Amino acid sequence: MARKRGRRVSKSRSRVRNSRSSRMMNQSSPVSMERKNIRIIFSNLVLFVLMFLISLILYRVLPIGIFQNLFAILMMGFGFISVAFLITLLVFLFIRLFRKERAMMNRQKAKPRRSRRRRR
Questions:
Q1: Cβ-contact 48, 81 below 8 angstroms
Q2: pLDDT tens profile 9-44
Q3: Radius of gyration of the chain (CA)
Q4: Distances from the Cα of 19 to the Cαs of 10, 28, 30, in angstroms?
Q5: What angle do CA 23, 24, 30 make, to 5 degrees?
Q6: Do residues 114 and 70 lie in contact, with contact meaning Cβ atoms separated by under 8 Å?
Q7: Which residue, among 90, 93, 83, 84, has the nearest Cα to 35 in the 3D structure?
Q8: Considering the entire predicted model, what is its pTM?
Q9: 75 near 63, Cβ under 8 Å?
Q10: Domain-wise residue ranges, the chain
């Protein structure tokens, strides 16, 4: 007996469609993503500044030369990374500020002006 060959529905297509639709539903707005990015940058900045301060304290406290060299290198590395996070945080905040200013200016331009008619 020969089996009838029916049209088989590909499961991979249905999976792709489902993943696309779930991805579309899970996408958040650009404003929330911007806030999330700023929070992540700020938390990393705080973390690296604390690590910089800890390595600075240990550099000053420990009298052994090898440990002083190690903590001096760590201190410089954490310092550079924390400055990089500070710069990125400032860039994100300035971008946010400029977007708000541009939106306010666009709102002001969009407002219709009242025509001044002479009263009789």
A1: yes
A2: 555 555 555 555 555 555 667 778 888 999 999 999
A3: 29
A4: 15, 16, 21
A5: 105
A6: no
A7: 93
A8: 0.62
A9: no
A10: 32-109
